[in-house]
């Protein structure tokens, strides 16, 4: 089923809104402790508990409005529910902090598996937006595969050695900026191996 077009601002709000709300709620509640059912929960755990249904609602709306969800969106939602749920259930923030690591390992591993088969799985999801030759896709895929594994290692280093507040800032701004900068620095690949908007590689 082809993706239906919706207002770009609405699409962006549905994709990024939950993360923005999570960050704002954490800043508001980070220093508070709540007693529920005889157990003490830090603000981070309560914010995580609220983030799970918010992600479900926003992703559901995105699917309803566009008729399409990418594999990355589906995997991310599943991991948010599973690891966020574990953090809330066990009152342990470590599970939620592991989530980005698993996301990047899974996507890096998927890209790496495709490369071993001589294919670019990245092309199958981005070809319409970035028409490149086969060589261009292979180069970009190799770089993104290594980049994902690098982000996984970095996330592990941050959450295991830094405070929760530092990790939240890193997750909200650092990872987003890193991905943006990665594609920004791939201009030479797009220029050298681009096929032109109307002449995608066959």
TrEMBL record:
InterPro entries hit by this protein: YciB (IPR006008)
UniProt keyword Methyltransferase, yes or no: no
Keywords linked to the UniProt accession: Cell inner membrane, Cell membrane, Membrane, Transmembrane, Transmembrane helix
Annotated Gene Ontology cellular component terms: plasma membrane
Membrane topology: Multi-pass membrane protein
Pfam families: IspA
Transmembrane segments: 12-29, 41-62, 74-90, 102-122, 143-161, 167-184
Compartment(s): Cell inner membrane
Keyword Cell inner membrane: yes
Family recorded in the similarity comment: Belongs to the YciB family.
UniProt function note: Plays a role in cell envelope biogenesis, maintenance of cell envelope integrity and membrane homeostasis.
Protein name from the UniProt record: Inner membrane-spanning protein YciB
The organism's taxonomic lineage, starting at the top: Bacteria, Pseudomonadati, Pseudomonadota, Alphaproteobacteria, Rhodobacterales
């Amino acid at each position: 089923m082809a993706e239906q077009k919706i207002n770009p601002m609405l699409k962006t709000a549905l994709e990024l809104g939950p993360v923005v709300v999570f960050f704002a709620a954490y800043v508001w509640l980070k220093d508070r402790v709540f007693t529920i059912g005889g157990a003490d929960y830090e603000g981070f755990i309560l914010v995580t508990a609220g983030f799970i249904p918010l992600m479900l609602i926003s992703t559901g709306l995105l699917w309803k409005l566009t008729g399409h969800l990418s594999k990355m969106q589906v995997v991310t939602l599943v991991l948010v529910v599973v690891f966020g749920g574990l953090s809330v259930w066990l009152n342990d923030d470590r599970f939620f902090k592991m989530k980005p690591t698993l996301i990047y390992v899974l996507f890096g591993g998927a890209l790496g598996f495709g490369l071993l088969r001589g294919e670019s799985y990245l092309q199958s999801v981005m070809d319409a937006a970035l028409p490149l030759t086969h060589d261009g896709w292979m180069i970009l895929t190799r770089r993104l595969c290594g980049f994902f594994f690098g982000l996984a290692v970095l996330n592990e280093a941050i959450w295991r050695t830094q405070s929760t507040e530092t990790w939240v800032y890193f997750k909200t701004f650092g990872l987003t900026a890193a991905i943006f900068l990665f594609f920004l620095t791939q201009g030479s690949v797009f220029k050298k191996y681009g096929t032109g908007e109307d002449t995608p590689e066959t």
